[in-house]
Amino acid sequence: MPLRELQYPTEPYSKVNRLKDRADYALETIHQIVNSCPMLHVSFQAPDSPFPAVLPMIGQMGSFSRPSADLGDVLDLYLHGYVSSRIMNTARSTDSQEEGVPMTIAASHLDGLVLALTPNSHSYNYRSAILFGHATLVTDPAEKLYAMELITESIVPHRWAHSRVPPNAAEMQSTSVLRVRISTGSAKIRTGEPHDERGDLEDEALLERVWTGVVPVYTVRGEPVAGGYNRVGEVPGYLEGWRGEVNREAEEYAREAVQREVVAKKVDG
């Protein structure tokens, strides 16, 4: 962990303008949101399209030169995909002297449905992050293998070592990896209970009639279902242990997020 908390610079295109109190520019906060998001949405400008392309992709932040770097350090984003996909072809056709393909990457988690007295005051508890950077193809075989393992481990920890590895030559040739050098980023987070207008809060009849509160929302990893040719009798311990832990953590965060803002107000007061 760095001696002081590192933050991304605020640029006109990355600065949170509405509800600025929900903004966070800390590398650790942003990287945690990205690395815990099972699906990233990657936007780039394809040369043969009048519209920006947006692709759902799997990715993970890390550092090939400093594998032990933590989430508060400067990290790159690794994305993998099919070798001849549009995003890989775009990166491949970019002049090697250029920075790379400009990309915007979005990650978001829904943590709760915030139900207020009036629909206009309804909201979500959420965590969202946006990264801005330039992508180039990874050409070093060692870095490519590092990124493939990093991404696999982000899906299910310890899965890489418990599968047939390393990838064979055909798998390595059919897969490309992008390294996105991050220029800046920002996060926006909402926690707490509903907030209503004073006029509605003073309406006793409305308060008696309308339920208000938060419905926690979190992703659950369900009971594993064996494949048709599976010959392993029991679900491996590393998989079942991780499934239980990640489910507990997701539920705990969603429920604690409801009270987080309320507790903060009491402490500040």
UniProtKB/TrEMBL annotation:
Name by which UniProt lists this protein: Flavin-nucleotide-binding protein
Taxonomic source organism: Chaetomium fimeti
